[in-house]
Amino acid sequence: MTTNKDQLSANLRMGTVMLKVGNMNLMSNYYQKALGLDIVAEADGGQYLGRGTEPLVHLQPAGGLHIPARGEAGLFHTALLFTDQASLAATVASAAQYDPQLFAGSADHLVSEAFYFTDPEGNGIELYWDRPRDAWNWNGSSVVMDSLALPPQQFLTQHLTEESVTGQRQAVADVGHIHLQVGDVQTAEKFYVDTLGFAKTAGWHGQALFVSAGGYHHHMAMNVWNSRGAGPRKDTLGLGEVLIQLPAKDDVGALSERLSHHRIAVADDGAEIRFEDPWRNQIRVSVEVAPGNVQS
């Protein structure tokens, strides 16, 4: 059980998600044309794509690696958060038009409305909008979520506007949360809650765990729907790194000390720390930087 001093800052933000990719042209084309992202920066052969000056996804070439099997640990989806339903509708529409076969479903989660896609190399993507926080229901420390029907065409009819289509690339988007596939939920909770310092906000029949900082519904989630019993990851395409941003250097230092206390190997260069979760997912924690500054 974490104490308040062991919990991550309420002002935590999720940062740029790094993906190892096999076909840069194919993947870059998808993220630009389907999701309406622009190239914010280029470095080491890779591309940072985002909205405005805010990088959301880092595509890093990794030729020679294979796409992970469905049951391996790794990425379930990267979730991009939009500020309003019209902005969400514009990107849902462009993603559906790019390749309808990459649409994977939709759901009303009570706290949010979400649409799911799969990129050309099998990485999951969620596009979503949050309902106002005062509309969320809590049962003690657990937020009430569900997966109710959300008909895509009805949503687009209600919310897609000419203004949101023409202004798609100017609309703000953020990495709202990251959802992982893991081998078991109990180990995930011990690591992400008891050690790392997130607060548990929801569970799902022992099959999924949702965690956050600052009373958000979830900044990260882990499930075993495809991957129950999965062991440590091999070096594959897909998730390369999860970036967590904290508001101050002292927050990063405190986390480094906490991880070391729990005998988690930490690479600490004084500015940021890097470590692995129990399935060898790479996690980097740094001080939040101003929008437009790419951290490589």
Descriptive report:
With 296 residues, this protein is α+β, with helices and mostly antiparallel strands. The protein has a domain at 4-38 and 61-230: Roll (2,3-Dihydroxybiphenyl 1,2-Dioxygenase, domain 1), CATH 3.10.180.10. The chain is 21% helix and 35% strand. The chain has helices at 24-34, 85-98, 152-159, 162-166, 185-195, 249-261; strands at 13-14, 17-21, 38-43, 46-51, 54-61, 74-82, 103-108, 112-118, 124-130, 138-139, 142-143, 173-181, 199-203, 208-212, 220-223, 238-246, 267-268, 272-276, 282-287. The strands form 3 sheets. Strands 1, 2, 3, 4, 5, 16, 17, 18 and 19 form a 9-stranded mixed beta sheet that branches. A hairpin with a 5-residue loop joins strand 8 (112-118) and strand 9. The chain is globular. The model has no long low-confidence stretch (mean pLDDT 95).
Alpha-carbon Rg, integer: 18 Å
Order of helices and strands: EEHEEEEHEEEEEHHEHEEEEHEEE
Q: Could you give the count of β-strands?
A: 19
Low-confidence stretches: none
Residue share in β-strands: 35-45%
CATH architecture of the domain at 4-38 and 61-230: Roll
Number of helical regions: 6
Overall body shape:
globular
- CATH topology grouping of the domain at 4-38 and 61-230: 2,3-Dihydroxybiphenyl 1,2-Dioxygenase, domain 1
**Briefly, what CATH class of the domain at 4-38 and 61-230?**
Alpha Beta
Give helix % range: 10-25%
CATH superfamily of the domain at 4-38 and 61-230: 2,3-Dihydroxybiphenyl 1,2-Dioxygenase, domain 1
